[in-house]
Write the structure tokens for this entry.
Amino acid sequence: MNDAKAGGMFLPRDREWQPNALAPDYKSSIKRSPKSKLLSFPTSLSEETSPIFGHDILGEFDHDLIVNYAKQGESAIGPRLLVHGTVRDEMGRPVPNALIEVWQANAGGRYRHKNEGYLAPLDPNFGGCGRVITADDGTYEFRTIQPGPYPWPNGPNSWRPAHIHFSIFGHGFAQRLITQMYFEGDTLIPLCPIVGALGSQDAVDILTAHLDMGRTIPMDMCAYRFDIVLRGAKQTYFENRSEGL
Amino acid sequence: MTEENERLKESPSQTAGPYVHIGCTPNFTGIATYETDLGALMKLGPVTGQEITIEGAIFDGDGAPLLDALVEIWQADANGLFNSANEMRGASDPNFSGWGRCPVDMETGEFRFETVKPGRVPWVDGSLQAPHITMWIVARGINIGLQTRIYFADEVEANLSDPILSQIDDRDRLTSLLANEDENGTHRFDVHLQGPRETVFFDI
Ligand SMILES: [Fe+3]
């Protein structure tokens, strides 16, 4: 029996790097953070397998938030954006067929949600959700509009920096991840207690997308690059597969 | 190890926030961009094995149910096989997805999964684990998704020899991982984020 199997397929999560459950400045975490130490175990098949989604689930405009909720011939209001990147694992291997689901506020910072009470207006042509599946080389891209920052009831005067929420499925349920993408140069980033739950500036930097003039489409849309890293496997699935043959 | 230096850091997690439904269950919140919400149905036709319902709620440190959480479960079919491209041991039940996603009810906090009782799955040393369901919880105030497992209270023997359960000495904590079947055949699994009944959460 080789080491990789004895210890589980996926590398243990670096919990020092990941945010603490309790981040007191983020008020909602106070009553929602477990107090006991997490019990650590190596991954088994329960975490090394996962649903893997095919491109066939995608509708024609699932990747285009500018039009996927808009009336025929209309489009969402706001600066047009191309967001793209590569999903890799910690070993640097591209992750193909990763499902990425995104959601965001509209250009005014307002979400289309029944619990949302911000006075900024809804955009009748913007729903705020989209999804893509990574290509064979792990790349993805979607089109959207620049989300606005918004106030929220945390402290007396709390504002979220502009952000896009990401939910990602890799190839093992151990890789399941939800995170947020921020925008380079946003002065609200260092003031945000949710960002502050991250333990280091390096972690903040990884979640900050950069303007990518190389992919910007002239006279159409600016591009932002946001790369994602999922937990790494000590062996590839291919190696695993050949063992079974 | 030179490889160590080349390793990338995993993307840090951030909370799903209160509007996770927009991205993950848009139909649930009235945005009909997609045909259906992914994970709404786990049984796609006649399934093999014992069909079960799992219900529960997630309670915060004040004992109040979370009304904005999203729960996902992932499990083997009745024969212990996963409906996954990574399943190398055989073909799982084609009518069973193995994956469910459920936003808790915005008024009551209840989640509900119509699924099948999972078979046993091997542990890293090849021995069999007790039947279990992997659960993952995200919500506003949760900075990184919480991982736990649903085991079954009536699987007394399998639970005793389970490699994970057998390492939890505290009886009360162990009990937090057991779903109990009620008189209607529904398995109840409540999650407590804090307090004397705090659920065991995993780092797997
Ligand atoms: Fe948000």
In short: Chain B has a mean pLDDT of 95. The beta strands of chain B are 51-59, 70-74, 99-103, 110-116, 132-138, 146-152, 178-181, 186-188, 191-192, 202-203. Chain B has one domain: 19-192.
